[in-house]
């Protein structure tokens, strides 16, 4: 009997037979007490009565899938004789239950850069129905954010695995819906939230926003030479960057208030005559383990200032000449040099 059968429905039963005659063969029927069924008698041709089961209450296969009844036939003789038969009622399933997930929201935390086909989590839904009505398959409820490009779900096991690389810097959280569908078309739903954990997979990046070169050699200490932007796409300690200069350049690093910008300033006076240019390497290291580094090379040329006076090769020249030397004769050649360059180093005599 199907669990969808309405109360009041009748189900004919087999008729008992008694080989005696007269009142000894008159039969009455009795049914063992059962809240779901009662016994009714239907008149048949020839005055015989047909016993019938009458459904009194709606059946629910999920609560009770079968019932045991005993039908007794009693004759009218003295002494009374009786016969019994066992009746087993199997309740046929109706697809009246939807799949139900064990959780309404599933949460998982996975590291970025997982290899493809790595297990993220497993969902599970149950259906109280039987047979195909209770067989559940899984699928994505929607795909508005391209979830299928990164995740796949096994329709039978409910396992969710990665199909593509996860990148924390691109997106650090995914939310999507799942559907469980039984063989009768009923569905259940749940939500999945996947948090992506950061890995130290990005090295610091140094961008030179501005560079003043050449720098006058008489520029005062504290003059800004370059403005740099230092960025690490990772988060937390993986994205915390420290910077240092290598080389003997007379420059130092000053951090801006925002933290991501660095300023190179003169730490001491320049001297072009000592060094006409300075090459240095800026190294940025993050706080990951192991740490990643980024570098930038900077060349600063020193612009000459007229900070040197001409210097004669001798402080005093002594020349002895005869008194009859002709007019226009060269008596001596003096030489002076200037350490500056260009016009600043061009010497005139008077």
TrEMBL record:
Compartments (UniProt record): Cell membrane
One of the protein's GO biological processes: homophilic cell adhesion via plasma membrane adhesion molecules
One Gene Ontology cellular component annotation held by this UniProt entry: plasma membrane
Keywords linked to the UniProt accession: Calcium, Cell adhesion, Cell membrane, Glycoprotein, Membrane, Repeat, Signal, Transmembrane, Transmembrane helix
Domain Cadherin stretches: 16-101, 102-206, 207-312, 313-350
PROSITE patterns with a match to the protein in the record: CADHERIN_1 (PS00232), CADHERIN_2 (PS50268)
GO MF annotation terms: calcium ion binding
Topology versus the membrane: Single-pass type I membrane protein
Protein's UniProt keywords contain Iron: no
Alphabetical list of Pfam families matching this protein: Cadherin (PF00028)
Annotated protein name in UniProt: PCDGE protein
Biological source species: Serilophus lunatus (silver-breasted broadbill)
């Amino acid at each position: 009997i199907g669990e969808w059968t309405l109360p009041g429905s009748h189900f004919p039963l087999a008729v008992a037979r008694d080989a005696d005659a007269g009142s000894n063969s008159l039969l009455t029927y009795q049914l063992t007490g059962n809240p779901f069924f009662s016994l009714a008698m239907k008149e048949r041709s020839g005055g015989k009565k047909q016993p019938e089961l009458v459904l009194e209450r709606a059946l629910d296969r999920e609560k009770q899938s079968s019932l045991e009844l005993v039908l007794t036939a009693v004759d009218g003789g003295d002494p009374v004789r009786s016969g019994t038969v066992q009746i087993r009622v199997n309740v046929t399933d109706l697809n009246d239950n939807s799949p139900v997930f064990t959780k309404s929201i599933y949460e998982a935390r996975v590291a970025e850069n997982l290899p493809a086909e790595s297990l993220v989590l497993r969902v599970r839904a149950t259906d109280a129905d039987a047979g195909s009505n209770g067989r559940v398959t899984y699928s994505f409820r929607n795909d508005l954010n391209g979830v299928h490009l990164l995740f796949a779900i096994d329709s039978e096991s409910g396992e969710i695995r990665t199909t593509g690389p996860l990148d924390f810097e691109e997106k650090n959280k995914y939310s999507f819906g799942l559907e469980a569908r039984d063989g009768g078309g009923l569905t259940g739903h749940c939500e999945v939230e996947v948090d992506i954990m950061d890995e130290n997979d990005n090295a610091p990046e140094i961008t030179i926003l501005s560079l003043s070169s050449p720098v006058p050699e008489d520029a005062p200490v504290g003059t800004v030479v370059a403005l740099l932007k230092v960025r690490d796409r990772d988060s937390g300690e993986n994205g915390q960057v420290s910077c240092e200069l290598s080389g003997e350049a007379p420059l130092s690093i000053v951090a801006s208030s925002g933290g991501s910008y660095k300023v190179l300033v003169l730490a001491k006076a320049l001297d072009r005559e000592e060094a006409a240019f300075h090459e240095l390497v800026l190294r940025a290291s993050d706080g990951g383990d192991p740490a990643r580094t980024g570098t930038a090379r900077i060349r600063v040329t020193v612009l000459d200032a007229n900070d040197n006076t001409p210097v004669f090769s001798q402080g005093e020249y002594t020349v002895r000449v005869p008194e009859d030397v002709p007019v226009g004769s060269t008596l001596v050649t003096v030489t002076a040099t200037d350490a500056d360059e260009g016009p600043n180093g061009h010497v005139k005599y008077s």
